[in-house]
Amino acid sequence: MIRQLFIILITCSLLAMSCSTKIVSTNIYQEQKENLNKIESRYEKINPANHFSLAYTDKKFNIISLEMISDTLTRIYEFNINERRLADTLIKYNYDTAGIYFLIRKMRESKVTWINSFDYYVNDQPQQLIILSIKPVTVRYIFSPPKYVALAYFRTAQSFDEKGRLLDSRRTKQVRKIKGQVFYKITDRICYTITDKYR
Amino acid sequence: MIKQGSDICIIKSNNFHLPYKPFILLILFLLSKEKGSAGNLLSEINSTKKEALEFIDKIDQSKENSLWPNVKLKLFYDNLKLNLEKPGSFYPGRSTNFCAYGALSYLIMEKDPLGYVKFMNELYDKGEANFNNNHFKPSGAVMKAAGTLKFKGVLDIRHAEQMWFLVLADKFKGYLNFFDKKFNEGDENSFWAATNLAKFDRMVNKMCGIHVKAVGSDLIKPWVKDPYSYLSKRIDSNIVSLYINNRIIHKKNHDKVKFSIPTHFIILKKISKQDNMVTLRYWDYGGETQMQVSPRTLKKIIFGIITIDK
Fold it and tell me: Most exposed residue of A106, B164, B263, B276, measured as fewest CB within 10 angstroms of its CB?
């Protein structure tokens, strides 16, 4: 009995190691470029006034998690996108209701699961980047983890090495990791990574 | 500052490959039955923010020290002042495993801010120092790493906090750190920095010298019938810290089946109930967060309740 259990365990481990999730399309950014750039630019426009992040927390893209971020308090809400409470909450806290509804709609169309801004520092000066995570169509095996494509939009041109990996700065050859992930070049200021977490 | 964080603090998949999970979970289970109260080993220490600010104004803040090659003096002392002026500003950093040390910092700033700045100042000067009879002598790798952590949000420019978190993680060890005791670059995100419930209790007890009562464990939820009543009874007269499974309330993927393990330490500030929904207000990552959960979810996420005398 113990031996059988052991064999099952080994088999499961081997399966887990050998089967990884495959993303069907290898060109997600180019296919949805227009929509994705619209989402990023609208977010960049409305986020500074009242900081927030949006995430679709269900597979069917019906439930949205809204984080309303102020200096003193972060409020986290979860709504069905058709709920009246969503609009009421946005109005109550003076958020750009039309702008956020635009994002919610566009994110759903392009299967964008999360949008948020990150602060980082260059020469001790604050900079910002925007991250979008996309849920791609995948072929997934029983023990394989999910996969998401994360896009990082910088405000300025970044440095990359010959393999297209994002670097810390022009002067160093050190690869810059964001949330422990190496990012690869799409354009001078946009790069991507494949990750098993959308945020 | 934009509050960012709420990341999983104990186990992140990029450092925790699937084939090892059953083995690690088994170890977790075997070692998880840690419960009870840490005794009052030391007399309680108290100081005030005013005393701490007076101390920091008197000290020489212009002495560079090669022991900490990457710590910038101005960022170090600016950070200490910020810690005193806004004790809730401690930010354990994005994607790190420092959340337990963040919660501990919150408690220390409540109890002994003067002890904190004296300790940090001595640590910077001599490379070793005592805090409440605990001797800290960080390794060379940790001293070199302080000031170099990047892409962690505002922690990037908080050199005192980088020192503090790294030194705490270097000193206190629990079973989660068994296979990764020596600091290497990037270990702030790995098991080297992870904290289990018993380790957290021990840290609070040793650093603050205060009575700690904990229920729960690293795998089995506390035997508390109604967590809302339990918490609301204690929150007024105690500081309450929770050890929770953050992945239920802060989802990171769309999988329905998730490991039921705690991942995050928070300080509970307020709790209330209306229309069968519980509103939680808690501190973590340099600020407060408010969210609503059902009583069922509340029970599901809590693995440890740590009650500390005010």
Answer: B276
Residue boundaries of the structural domains of chain B: 13-25+44-204, 211-309
- Name the 3-class secondary structure at B258: coil
**Class of domain B211-309 (CATH, top level):** alpha beta
Query: Among B26, B253, B291, which would you mutate to test the A interface (most chain A Cβ atoms within 10 Å of its Cβ)?
Result: B253
Q: CA–CA separation, A13 vs B308, rounded Å?
A: 42
Q: What would the 3-class secondary structure string for B122-134 be?
A: HHHHHCCEEECCE
Q: Which of B7, B150, B287 sits opposite A73 (nearest CB)?
A: B287
CB under 8 Å to B266, separation ≥6 — which residues? B99, B103, B241, B242, B244, B282, B283, B284
Predicted ipTM beyond 0.90: no
pLDDT per residue as tens digits for the range A52-85:
999 999 999 999 999 999 988 999 999 999 999 9
SS (H, E, C) A54-68: EEECCCCCCEEEEEE
The verdict on a CB contact (< 8 Å) between A74 and B287 is: yes
The reply to whether residue B254 touches residue A58, judged by beta carbons under 8 angstroms, is yes
φ, ψ dihedrals at B309, nearest 5° = -60, 135
Alpha helical stretches, state H, B177-262: 197-208, 227-234, 246-249
Query: In this predicted model, what pLDDT tens digit does every residue of B278-300 receive, in sequence order?
Result: 999 999 999 999 999 999 999 99
Nearest to A131 by CA among A95, A158, A155, A160: A155
Interface of A with B (CB under 8 A): 9, 13, 16-17, 51, 55, 57-59, 65, 69, 71-77, 113, 116-121, 124, 135, 143, 145-146, 148, 168, 176-181, 195-199
